[in-house]
TrEMBL record, chains A, B:
Residue ranges annotated for the FAD-binding domain, each copy included: 41-276, 307-435
Database matches in CDD domains: PHOX_C
Sequence similarity: Belongs to the PheA/TfdB FAD monooxygenase family.
Species assigned in the record: Penicillium canescens
Protein name: Phenol hydroxylase C-terminal dimerization
Length: 660, 660
């Protein structure tokens, strides 16, 4: 259009860039590096695999700059020959709230189905498909597991990190030693000795996160054991473009044949236009007895025994075994070339402690990811659980550093909020180990011999545990951040139903995404898009059907919630408001003014797209209040007339600005 | 997991990067720059606004490298103070097929509803809402219009361009003159004189695309007029954070009050967390008579008259008029600050020719976007129609350059395919101009005086033309690329229904997205994701319900289509196959082998998610064949037993490799 007069403000120029996440406010005094005293940080992250990258990315987005935060990695560049490939639906939900899910959504392989193949009733057919089940069983925003090269996941996170951090990852940097030295400097008690390109230096930090993998130097230096067992089955894993007439090559398959077991994982399309396939193949040999617990975090295999057996593993052997097990179908790498192959032994081990405290009881060193739990890869858990460790820890650490965490009332509990990392994630790690042991055992050599029952059990185990493995049904135990109904016992029917996998509200589980119609503009939105990973708490009010009555309980609750939210540092507590089907249409004037003031763009009709009240198990006649934690988990549920319950919950987590 | 043996191929290293679009094959001899002869290109694009960037991006993705393609722009950087802000649903569909829609999906404002406000029946209320209608009426993958800063759209395209082109846009480069000089070099007859940072040089190119805006130098040098009229109403436009009690500030609104007319366009959220609002305000004054056609592409306003009136326009005047027209509500910029403001005059003009040919009839110079059509901004069309010009032209130009276009049989028609750019896009430009004239007139000063009828008419005009303005109902006229039913008259019921906005198949309209279940893996997919903008033709076969019979017409058709597709250069013609609800489940073995060979990952059940057959108007008992052009438009529809019709269509477009 031909414009003849034009005036522009300077802030407009920046609008061409993608949005940045708003940093969290800081009540604590600003951090000032003092080079004269020595190199010091607020947080050092060791390791830039999925766990370390997620940790660094979140802390950067929450507001830690390069002066406060250092992330180091021993490798010279991002991972090239990565092993993990599965991105679970809950991980995708989290990536989505970070705005970094698109490349995975568009370019990963989406596994929607899991097929089970077993010895055929007609022996001439050898094997037959006995079931096809959905890959993702709980209600979820993404109904599939994505598979894509681990290096790509890391590159996606690093690219986003570089929007917030000029330095990014300090590479070629090997951590040599980590120790606590409170006498030297009790504010920066963690001493880290590291070598960058061979040049050694010692730095200090307030906190350190060891995300440095199964052979974690941090874990070793802190003297934490890795407890568990190694079942000692040897498996081969191959990525290749498959040439096959097997009909389910594009589905995830568990195949048990008289000749052995294979798992097929379809993978992403590559630049040739072809599709990768991953095979897990059990290497045939006598089943060795399970090794005992190996203390000290070694690999859990007796060196002599293992070395001899390892030397037997060849690509040809793996491919031969796969070809045998998939008979009568054929299966070989196209043009004889494989993309990557490896061999491994199943072992499940977990550290009993994820946190190391100083002498005053303050949490100083954390371990995350493979550094605190290792297990087999076949359930596609490793990368996911590791990143979710970071997702659980990062906001707590940030609240602690920024002075946003509520000051404990007893002087001997300085880091209550931080301790919930151990409470919540150690339980998950233990569940992971237990599931993996069960799933792997079923899938291993015993399988072919006991048949029938075991075959069904594998499928049942998959289905039963899918809430956990998809990440969408994970439930944290009761703790200061997860307050259940024990003191709310007089309102037994506040939440109707117990099918939490379908979305029924439950403290300790993530809030299910629902689609809602926004009042202000008719925008059909996903509620998860109002839960971006910006470190904020959200009070959600599902009002009752009396919203249009001026003196209704809903109106009173909304006003009380607004007063409550104002007691916390600005922007830290947001409001989301839903209404059920009402008896008439209405305008802003018909509802309490605080709705438009506090939640104009987060006020929804919860009845016309998804039926949010039914999905969440909420009676529209009663409504409900809940708090969603910064990581998307429900923290507490209360009746509309019990704002005090929300008040107590939030004040136990977040420092008020008024001090009350 | 602890791996002890690991081997990786080198190609794996590249897998961490986002995918690249596969270039089109080239039958023409490779282009070799010969610096001794002079600087020469295959295509020069002038202008890096939305039209020029889309042109350059597509040509780069189709395979033109920096040696072949040069894009220049006079400005020193991407647009800062851009004017356009609307991204229509069809444009979003195209962005999605390019993999660049995400940032818009996530961060633009989504306009889902259009509210009409008119003088109230109760005069005390002054104005009242008379209707709320959906912003997007036709069936579409995206049910909203997105609004976001034009500079950001350009930055998104430029970022993607830089993945394919090292040079990107050559900026600070002003084109001084363009002329045809066949005598000097008839293969590179377009002479371009340009100045980069003031240094002048002359280069040659086979083709030139003038995407250099309303004041196009290319258009002027080629002597093309811009015909039409300027209605001469003056409008002010303001972007600001609004402080208002107007209830529909987050909806698109057309407000007519006794005090004047405003249009409200909600805009994206900015870094403060606040939301922008755009206002179009009619500047009050006597309505001046429409100017006559102004030849030569001037601004269409008599300089003396206009200059005097322009000087009256101030921000304060615009805001005062907006505040008056929205009474009894209040409306002002928050903190008194506006983001951007401008004034413009409505004018609709179009060039009669979009192509300039050389003496042999070969199309050499093209104009696109504002260079060939200008109009008012209020319908949110400009940026969209401009980019769709490029989307229409780019693949045709690439087919021509790469020798993929079918050689014409008559020697006097060397550039049949290229000429369809004029045929198709000039008609769209004319429709745009006609619509804009009607819509703008209705919305302008006449409105408030005639009331009633006109108010309804504006809403009707919006609804009636939404197919066009959304881009989703655009229909190209019959031409070599759009073959309708005239010679197919014996199959009158091949396509049932005529409600093309709902998705009924129609040559000349874009194929509607549907969701389908993929046979190979149970992936629930959008068919548009199988129509990426890679320049390929697609033969879609909606088989009939007899697919499982070995000698069925469906089976014969699939085999014939496979033979046909093989006659064209490798990868240029892809197959997509759907089946209707069948009477039993089936395996790959039950259907023709060519389905798995040619379309393993593009073979769908068209009945279980969306009912594709009903949506497309296809009888499952009969099925249908169709060709989807590289730009997503349906080219031809044929009965399953008439593969010849598809054969003729494709051979009129694409050069066969066997020559038959």
């Amino acid at each position: 259009m031909p414009v003849f007069t034009e005036h522009s403000s300077s802030s407009r120029d920046l609008r061409v860039l993608p949005s940045f996440a708003p940093p969290l406010p800081r009540l604590a005094p600003p951090f000032k590096p003092e080079p004269k005293i020595g190199e010091r940080y607020e947080v050092v992250v060791v390791g830039a695999g999925p766990a370390g990258l997620m940790q660094s990315l979140l802390l950067s987005r929450y507001g830690l700059n390069d002066a406060s935060l250092l992330c180091v990695d021993a490798k010279p560049s991002t991972l090239k020959s990565g092993q993990a490939d599965g991105v679970q639906p809950r991980t995708l939900e989290v990536f989505k709230t970070l705005g970094i899910s698109t490349e995975i959504e568009n370019e990963a392989c989406q596994m929607w189905q899991f097929a089970f193949w077993n010895p055929a009733t007609d022996p001439k057919k050898v094997i037959e498909r006995t079931a096809v089940v959905p890959e993702v069983i709980p209600a979820a925003r993404f109904k599939y597991e994505a598979t894509i090269h681990q290096g790509r996941i890391e590159r996606i996170m690093e690219t986003d990190l570089l929007r917030y951090s000029e330095r990014g990852i300090l590479r070629n940097t090997r951590v040599l030693d980590v120790s606590l030295d409170e006498e030297g400097d009790d504010e920066f008690p963690v001493l880290v000795s590291m070598a960058t390109d061979g040049i050694v230096k010692v730095i200090r930090t307030k906190h350190l996160v060891g995300a440095d993998g199964a052979h974690s130097v941090v874990r070793r230096c802190m003297g934490l054991p890795l407890e568990g067992e190694s079942l000692d089955h040897i498996w081969g894993v191959v990525d290749m473009v498959a040439e096959t007439d097997f009909p389910d090559i594009r589905r995830r398959c568990a195949i048990h044949s008289p000749a052995g077991s294979i798992m097929i994982i379809p993978r992403e399309r590559i630049s040739t236009g072809e599709y990768l396939t991953r095979l897990y193949v059990q290497v045939p040999e006598d089943v060795a007895p399970a090794c005992d617990l190996v203390p000290g975090g070694g690999e859990g295999v007796r060196p002599d025994d293992a070395r001899q057996r390892r030397s037997k593993i060849t690509l040809e052997g793996i491919l031969k075994q796969a070809a045998d097990a998939i008979q009568p179908y054929s299966l070989r790498p196209k043009d004889g070339a494989v993309d990557w192959w490896a061999a491994y032994q199943i072992g499940q081990r977990v550290s009993p402690e994820f946190i190391v405290k100083d002498s005053k009881g303050a949490a100083r060193v954390f371990i995350t990811g493979d550094a605190c739990h290792t297990h087999s890869p076949k359930a596609g858990q490793g990368m996911n659980v590791s990143m979710m460790d970071s997702y659980n820890l990062a906001w707590k650490l940030m609240y602690h550093i920024n002075g946003l965490a509520a000051q404990p009332t007893c002087s001997n509990k300085p880091t209550l909020l931080l301790e919930t990392y151990q409470t919540e994630r150690h339980q998950i790690a233990q569940q992971l180990i237990d599931f993996d042991r069960k799933f792997s055992t079923m899938f291993s050599g015993e399988m072919a011999t006991t048949e029938g029952l075991m075959q069904e059990e594998l499928q049942q185990a998959f289905e039963l545990n899918n809430g956990f493995t998809s990440g969408c049904g994970v439930e944290y135990p009761e703790n200061m951040l997860v307050v259940r109904d024990e003191d709310n016992i007089n309102s037994p029917s506040l939440i109707q139903g117990t099918d939490y996998l379908s979305g029924i509200l439950r403290p300790g589980r993530r809030l299910l995404n629902v689609r809602l119609l926004r009042h202000a503009d008719g925008w059909q939105r996903d509620i998860h898009d109002d839960l971006p990973s910006t470190g904020r708490f959200r009070i959600m009010c599902l009002t009752s059907a009396d919203l249009l009555d001026q003196n209704s309980i809903s109106a009173q609750t909304l006003e009380a919630v607004t007063l409550l939210a104002a007691q916390f540092p600005k922007s830290v507590v947001e409001q989301i408001i839903l209404h059920p089907k009402l008896h008439r249409s209405f305008e802003w004037d018909d509802i309490p003014a605080c709705v438009k003031q506090e939640a104009e763009m987060r006020f929804y009709d919860g009845s016309v797209l998804d039926d949010a009240y039914t999905i969440y198990g909420v009676d529209p006649a009663r409504g409900v209040l809940l708090v969603v934690r910064p990581d998307g988990y429900v923290g507490v549920v209360a009746s509309l007339d019990d704002v005090q319950r929300v008040d107590r919950y939030l004040k136990s987590c977040i420092q008020t600005v008024s001090g009350n």
